[in-house]
Amino acid sequence: MFPLTSYERKAVIFILGVLLAGAVLHYALRVRSINKFFYKDMLVSVESSPAPVKVKLNTASVEELCKLKGIGPALAERIVAYRIEHGPFSSADELTKVRGIGVKKLRQIKDVLIIP
User: Fold this and answer.
1) Does residue 1 form part of some domain?
2) Which of 2, 56, 63, 93 is 20 to 30 Å from the Cα of 18, by its Cα?
């Protein structure tokens, strides 16, 4: 074939490497965009979060309260115990009297509480 010097062989290998890397990158980006096109309905359903669960604060059980973000079984039991001891909650702000619920946690769950 053609006699190439060492420098020319290195240059040819470098150029082929760059072309190969570009082809791989092009293929990866194209496959990604094709997948987004074909599976966009699946992506939307996976990325969208479910509607928050609304809970009636004055009648909710421990299990129902545990469905709220940041409320575990122990805290849910304290809420129910407070409700039994002091009667129904008149406002969501009254929840801050329950040990473990501060202003920050109340802000997290206030929108999903139903208080008659």
Assistant:
1) no
2) 2
pTM exceeding 0.90: no
Do 60 and 40 fall into the same domain?
no
Q: Kindly report the backbone phi and psi dihedral angles of residue 91, in degrees, each rounded to the nearest multiple of 5, phi listed first.
A: -155, 165
Which tens digit of pLDDT belongs to each residue from 66-100?
989 889 999 999 999 999 999 999 999 999 999 99
Q: Among all chains, which residue has been given the structure tokens 């082929």? A: 16
DSSP-assigned beta bridge partners for residue 114: 56
How many other CB atoms are found less than 10 A from the CB of residue 41? 8
Residues 6+ apart with CB under 8 A from 115: 56, 57, 58, 89, 90, 91, 92
Residues forming beta bridges with residue 55, ordered by sequence position:
113
Q: How far apart are CA 64 and CA 55, in angstroms?
A: 7
